[in-house]
Amino acid sequence: MVLATINPATGVREDEFEAHDAAEIERRVEQAAQAHLELRVTGFEDRARWTRRAAELLEGDAEDTARMITVEMGKPIAQSRAEVYKCAKTLRFYADHAAEFLADEHLANPSAVNASQAFARYHPIGVVLAVMPWNYPLWQVVRFAAPGLMAGNACLLKHASNVPRSAIYLDTLFERAGFPAGALNTLLIGARDVEAVIADRRVAAVTLTGSEPAGRSVAAAAGRSIKKTVLELGGSDPFIVMPSADLEAAAETAVRARVANNGQSCIAGKRFIVHTDVHDDFLRLFVKHMADLTVGDPLDEATDVGPLATRGGRDELAELVDDAVAKGATVLVGGFTPDRPGWFYQPTVVTGLTSEMRLVGEEAFGPVASVYRAQDRQDAVRIANQTTFGLSSAVWSNDRDEQDWFVSALDAGAVFLNGMTVSYPELPFGGIKDSGFGRELAAVGIREFCNLKTVWRA
């Protein structure tokens, strides 16, 4: 098996790598197991020093690494650069806060359990396998690895097969920073090899960010081995606009929410649900801003939207739009594949959607926005909650009572009020329903892969 870097802006194969054979997989899994034994007895101070050094290395490599990301998966170079710095910020966040997040939790009244002292202590769980996607090739890994390593776990990385350069870069980053060899080991393997790694007794848990089918497969394999799993899967996030909203700000933000990362983000606003009183005004602004976007070479600083990461992803997105149009939907802008090399799709706005259209129930992973008219807030929530996903959401309203009502009514792992969904290391991140389970980031993210051990002292 060969893993290749194919530039999505040109379709040209830039590089290729042979997959690891069984002997190399065994060596790397064992090395990770040994690294964990060393890490679990190191203190937070040592781990924090190495983690901060990893942040410094990332920043020092920023320009080369940003170009690597853009060539591998096509996002505009400015966004690739921002991804690198976000990773560095997150590494420093966990270096600064891990000891606090994993401090002993003492029972205030131990006599209630007939003890002189009772507390819960967090211990690392062991080797954690991460199955990661291509859309944020560094960030998705770092948001798992930073808390994992700071907790004392070791990490195995099975990255997406179309970003092997990013996988190999991450394979060396943490050892360069001072961590024991194998603290984060990359496995250059295909999807068919993942189940065997999950079943390995040296692997304690698994986390996956990716598609719903991949999540079901990994969760089933982990379940057979009785291993902890965290899943962050797809999303079809609603972006709700109510009459009290600042429409210009909402429309400008809606465009960024839809086309960031070339529209290939699980937490992107994808379904724009607009109250009938402001629907036409919002739509006019939204369509204008979408039409004004510059589509082009992602290495050009002036480009707003680059290519889709894969030909298959571009073709699937086009099929969703074509299916909706064939069943009566209206395309207000875009809706076509530009006549140029690479896997581009024009930023698109679709209205007139009905339940039999695939675009209503499936995730559009690219710069395609679906717009719905809502009669009132109950209707807006009905539309928002009608999909099987529940990752994040955004609500634009300047009515505080209405904001609180939406926070309670929406089926989602997060609600962003008068803004777009963005992941921050300080905030818990994750979804419900078919968007997965468990949480990443913040304090809960580092605790997900720890053994919470109860201690009772007479």
Measured distance between first and last alpha carbons: 58 Å
Helical fraction: 40-55%
Largest sheet: 7 strands, mixed
Query: What's the number of helices?
Result: 15
Q: Proportion of β residues?
A: 15-25%
In CATH terms, the superfamily of the largest domain is Aldehyde Dehydrogenase, Chain A, domain 1
Sheet/helix structural class: alpha/beta
| Gross CATH architecture of the largest domain | 3-Layer(aba) Sandwich
Radius of gyration over all CA atoms, rounded: 23 Å
* CATH class wording of the largest domain: Alpha Beta
CATH topology of the largest domain, what is it called? Aldehyde Dehydrogenase, Chain A, domain 1
Count of structural domains: 2
Q: Order of strands in the sheet with the most strands?
A: 12-13-14-11-10-16-17
Secondary structure tally: strands: 20
Shape: globular
Mean pLDDT: 98
Unreliable stretches covering 5 or more consecutive residues: none
InterPro entries: Ald_DH/histidinol_DH, Ald_DH_C, Ald_DH_CS_CYS, Ald_DH_N, Aldehyde_DH_dom, ALDH_GabD1-like, GABD/Sad-like
Keywords: NADP, Oxidoreductase
Domain Aldehyde dehydrogenase: 4-455
Pfam families: Aldedh
Structural features, described:
- It is a single chain.
- The protein folds into 2 domains: 255 residues, Aldehyde Dehydrogenase, Chain A, domain 1 (3-Layer(aba) Sandwich); 188 residues, 3-Layer(aba) Sandwich (Aldehyde Dehydrogenase, Chain A, domain 2).
- The longest helix has 25 residues.
- It is 41% helix and 21% strand.
- The model has no long low-confidence stretch (mean pLDDT 98).
- It is built from 15 helices and 20 strands.
- With 458 residues, it is of the alpha/beta class.
- This is NADP-dependent succinic semialdehyde dehydrogenase.
